[in-house]
Design goal:
Helices cover about 30% and strands about 20% of the residues. By secondary structure, the chain is an alpha/beta fold. The chain has a single domain, classed as Alpha-Beta Barrel (TIM Barrel). The strands form four sheets. The protein has an eight-stranded parallel β-barrel, surrounded by six helices.
């Protein structure tokens, strides 16, 4: 691996800036059958809750033009099972281990964070796009001051580096990012999925049991790129950029917009080893354009 792609995020060294995004790679075992997970800059775990959760019923994934709608509902084995069954396996791969933590209440988040305090991981990615069961299902990450309570409380107990994954459905994503910085987050990650919908015209009913679902894939890339650019210019903490990245050119755009690290998600459904193509393509681009390190193009716009 070339020196050109080495970078840092919140003081943590990455061999390259390409990370597998939460919810699209499980804990890495399946994709490791297609390529060496150890070549990645990092891997972000499937979203975990403090306790096991079965997820949503009915249809969970629906293909759309240039994207995918999903309503998986955070099906996961729980933090304890992850620590017991998968943590050591991920750490043995020699890549940055990012663990995504969600919750349906403040207590959920705090319990999960405290359980992870004793685990060996590099970054806790706090997912505030989860539905707040005490507020009629409204996501914690939609309103800045509602999100502040979660970020402040988890930051107070979390012993790891902590990033906050931001929802593009927020009222003001720049204000949301600034709040995360104010409350001590070590970085922000954006964007999560956009709220979308699909209708079965034969059944004359929504495709998804929960009616609305999360849209990801190439269709959202231009909007995600714009949001990363806005946030990167507004905060001093580093940004992980994601949203529709499927080629090395996409990844270069996000870094030029200000992202220190990028996450690749939905594209792996079409080509499991696409992250290897992105790493190799970025390497060639830097070499052909005379750059000694990827940080030379970060935020050049």
């Amino acid at each position: 691996m070339s020196e050109r792609l080495k970078t840092t995020f919140a003081g943590i060294p990455f061999k390259n800036p390409v990370v597998l995004a939460s919810g699209t790679c499980g804990f890495g075992r399946e994709l490791d059958e297609y390529f060496d997970i150890g070549r990645l800059g990092g891997i972000c775990s499937k979203g975990l809750l403090s306790h096991p959760h079965g997820g949503n019923e009915g249809i969970r994934v629906w293909e759309t033009p240039s994207g995918v709608l999903n309503s998986v509902g955070l099906e996961n084995p729980g933090v304890d099972a992850f620590i017991r069954d998968d943590l050591d396996w991920v750490n043995a791969k020699g890549t940055v281990n990012i663990v995504n933590l969600g919750g349906h209440s403040l207590q959920d988040y705090l319990e999960g964070a405290e359980k992870l305090n004793g685990a060996k991981l590099d970054i806790l990615e706090l997912n505030i796009s989860c539905p707040n069961v005490k507020s009629g299902g409204m996501n914690f990450g939609t309103k800045t001051e509602v999100a502040r309570e979660i970020v402040r409380a988890v930051r107070a107990v979390c012993r790891h580096k902590m990033t906050v994954k931001l929802s593009p459905n927020a009222e003001d994503i720049v204000s949301l990012a600034r709040m995360c910085e104010e409350e001590g987050a070590d970085g922000v990650c954006l964007v999560n999925t956009f709220l979308g919908m699909a209708i079965d015209i034969q059944k004359k009913a929504p495709v998804f049991q929960n009616v609305y679902a999360g849209l990801s894939g190439p269709a959202i890339k231009p909007i995600a790129l714009r949001m990363v650019h806005q946030v990167a210019k507004a905060v001093h903490i580093p940004v992980m950029g994601l949203g529709g990245i499927s080629t090395w050119q996409d990844a270069v755009e996000f870094i030029m917009a200000g992202a220190a690290v990028v996450q690749v998600g939905t594209a792996t459904f079409m080509k499991p080893d696409v992250s290897m193509d992105i790493i190799d393509g970025m390497e060639r681009y830097l070499e052909e354009n005379g750059y000694g390190n990827v940080e030379e193009i970060r935020g050049i716009l």
